[in-house]
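Technical note accompanying the year-one report. For the benefit of new consortium partners, we illustrate the data format agreed upon in the data management plan: each record pairs a sequence with a structure-token string. No post-processing was applied to the example shown here.
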Amino acid sequence: MTTEIQHTNLFWERGNRGPHPFTDLSQLKELPVLQAYSAMPKFVGFAFEHDADNEVWWTMALFDRGFEWYVIGHTDQKVEGLPEWDKGRYQVKTPGGGVLLVNGADVASSVGNIVVLKDGRQCVKVPRKKEEL
């Protein structure tokens, strides 16, 4: 079955947002736009997040062990073999002053530098030390 990815970032292709047709995961990964992300430092893989409200599957490029991610496109159907995004990782400072590494499954929302945990604590993202990168 052929589907297509609509690229959302104009940086790589200078306006050629697609659509870019493909039939399976291996063809998707061979598209020049995805190859450009794969070649970037700290790249770890691609994943998807399903947006049921709009019936699209957002394609994510993941970097730095999951601490950085970018929506790079979307498809109109699930791509078999592409893993579901785990909602990322965060290093946060809690209201009590402690610093935690948090998985995305524990996050209720994240906007800018503010991360609200599912237990209700409002935290602030903090940079990681160079040796942790």
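Partners are asked to follow this layout when depositing records. The helical segments are 10-13, 25-30, 32-38.
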